[in-house]
């Protein structure tokens, strides 16, 4: 049964509206579900990107996750819809990682003369940033992504959801399907490992950012 | 550093501790330098992660009906026509195949029910000729007497029989049997049995199948158009 909610064409969704859209989507209304997609696609894509560390794979996983979410939307029984979506995208990413393990592939991106992967030109496309800012942001992202990649997968997904996506512990517990205590423990250990890893990049990190973090710590 | 302390610090950082635990930890942080240092590390790590730029999705991930395998809602009668069309098509081919194969099955030697098809009948003919022939040529007649008679016209057969020594010797020839074969043999292929299932039924089934398929096509295209 559809509630006749007018699908939104912007990505602004209130909690009440979200419930109505979910109910419509459960009745098979694809437009309602597309409104939810527009609202959550950035978060879902970023989660996939941080887990998989590849833009194209992340886009594929995001699309798969949304298709899978629509097909199984009747299994959603309330609670945080974002957490439920995050579980779907995490599963899609795990599937992709398992597939990569079975059939490893070599990226086609060209390397520099030093053998290092060339930077993606995405920052250059942002006209609001100066070249220095672009370089700093790129360095920061590379360093954090490198350290994230060194984390075990179960730590990685927790820290991505809690610290990058800003989800609370309960939502992360729902998304990962583990008890709250396990989330707390994994998050604490993941943060400590990340800190240790990032210390090796301290000099590379943007100066403005270092000052900001130090100032906040005092 | 105890793992429990680490968890407490992390939860404190996120404001997930209850007030009493929080107050206790605050007091410990003031006196314990190691604890305070780890707290700083955790805060710094969290700060780094929160600084990570949130990337916009490279494209819209909205779904199409094709992607999720959604089909347009069909009229209620659609399943009925689908079953009827399928059934009619199947029956048409079954009857067609049955009519085509049945005579061949019946003609096979050793096939039950005593045979009776065209081929069975023609296959029996040489045997009959072989048994009948000696009767016609009891006298020292030419052994090939009956064989040419089978292919010759009645007049020629009559002439040949008259010329045989047995005829000359006054032995009563048994022309009627020879004549019978000579006359009936060429007509045998014309005795084709009628089809077991009437062709009228086949036409009806074919009509139902074609009509049903056409109707389904129209229903489908109308539904798709309305759905879009």
Write the layout of secondary structure elements.
The complex is a heterodimer of chains A (218) and B (228).
Chain A: H1 15-26, H2 30-52, H3 55-71, H4 81-102, H5 131-149, H6 153-164, H7 169-176, H8 180-199, H9 207-217
Helix pairs in contact in A: 1-2, 2-3, 2-4, 3-4, 4-7, 5-8, 6-8, 7-8
Chain B: H1 3-13, H2 19-31, H3 33-51, H4 78-107, H5 118-136, H6 146-151, H7 154-163, H8 165-168, H9 175-184, H10 199-227
Helix pairs in contact in B: 1-3, 2-3, 4-10, 5-9, 7-9
Descriptive overview:
The complex is a heterodimer of chains A (218) and B (228). Chain A is mainly alpha-helical and 218 residues long. Chain A folds into two domains: 10-102, Rna Polymerase Sigma Factor, Chain: A; 128-218, Orthogonal Bundle (Arc Repressor Mutant, subunit A). Chain A has nine helices and no strands. Chain A has helices spanning 15-26, 30-52, 55-71, 81-102, 131-149, 153-164, 169-176, 180-199, 207-217. Chain A starts with 14 loop residues before the first helix and ends with a helix. Mean pLDDT of chain A is 81; it is low at 1-10 and 117-125. Chain B folds into three domains: 3-51, no CATH class; 75-117 and 193-228; 119-191, no CATH class. Mean pLDDT of chain B is 73; it is low at 112-153. Chain B has 228 residues and is mainly alpha-helical. Chain B is rod-shaped, with a radius of gyration of 49 Å.
Output the helix-strand order of chain A. Answer: HHHHHHHHH
Number of helices of chain A: 9
Note the beta-strand portion of chain B: under 5%
Helices and strands of chain A: which structural class? mainly alpha
- How far is it from the N-terminal to the C-terminal residue of chain A, by CA? 55 Å
Alpha carbon gap, first and last residue of chain B: 64 Å
Q: Biggest interface in this structure? A: A-B, 50 and 37 residues
Estimated structural class of chain B: mainly alpha
């Amino acid at each position: 049964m559809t509630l006749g909610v007018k699908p939104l064409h912007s990505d602004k969704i209130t909690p009440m509206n979200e419930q109505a859209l979910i109910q419509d989507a459960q009745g098979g209304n694809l437009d309602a579900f597309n409104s939810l997609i527009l609202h959550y696609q950035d978060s879902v894509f970023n989660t996939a990107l941080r887990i998989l560390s590849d833009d194209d794979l992340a886009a594929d996983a995001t699309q798969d996750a949304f298709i899978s979410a629509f097909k199984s939307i009747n299994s959603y029984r309330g609670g945080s819809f974002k957490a439920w979506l995050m579980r779907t995208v995490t599963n899609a990413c795990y599937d992709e990682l398992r597939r990569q393990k079975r059939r490893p592939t070599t990226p086609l991106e060209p390397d520099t003369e030093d053998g290092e992967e060339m930077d993606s030109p995405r920052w250059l496309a942002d006209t609001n940033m100066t070249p220095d800012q672009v370089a700093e942001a790129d360095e920061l992202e590379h360093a954090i992504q490198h350290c994230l990649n060194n984390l075990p997968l179960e730590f990685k997904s927790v820290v991505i959801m809690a610290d990058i996506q800003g989800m609370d512990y309960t939502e992360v517990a729902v998304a990962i399907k583990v008890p709250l205590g396990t989330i707390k423990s994994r998050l604490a250990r993941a943060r400590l490992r990340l800190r240790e890893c990032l210390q090796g990049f301290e000099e590379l990190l943007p100066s403005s950012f270092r000052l900001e973090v130090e100032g906040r710590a005092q | 550093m105890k793992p429990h302390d680490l968890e407490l610090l992390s939860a404190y950082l996120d404001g997930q501790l209850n007030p009493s635990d929080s107050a206790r930890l605050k007091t410990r942080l003031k006196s314990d330098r190691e604890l305070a240092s780890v707290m700083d590390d955790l805060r710094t790590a969290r700060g780094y992660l929160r600084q990570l730029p949130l990337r916009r999705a490279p494209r819209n991930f909205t779904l199409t009906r094709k992607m999720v395998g959604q089909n347009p809602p069909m009229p209620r009668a659609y399943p009925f026509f689908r079953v009827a069309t399928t059934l009619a098509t199947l029956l048409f081919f079954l009857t067609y195949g049955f009519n085509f194969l049945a005579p061949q099955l019946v003609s096979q030697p050793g096939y039950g029910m005593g045979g009776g098809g065209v081929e069975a009948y023609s296959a029996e003919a040489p045997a009959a000729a072989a048994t009948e022939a000696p009767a016609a040529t009891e006298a020292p007649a030419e052994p090939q007497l009956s064989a040419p008679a089978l292919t010759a016209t009645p007049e020629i057969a009559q002439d040949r029989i008259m010329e045989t020594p047995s005829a000359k010797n006054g032995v009563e020839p048994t022309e009627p049997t020879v004549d019978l074969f000579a006359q009936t043999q060429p007509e045998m292929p014309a005795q084709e049995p009628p089809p077991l299932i009437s062709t009228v039924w086949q036409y009806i089934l074919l009509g139902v199948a074609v009509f049903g398929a056409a109707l389904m096509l129209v229903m489908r295209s109308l539904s798709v158009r309305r759905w879009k």
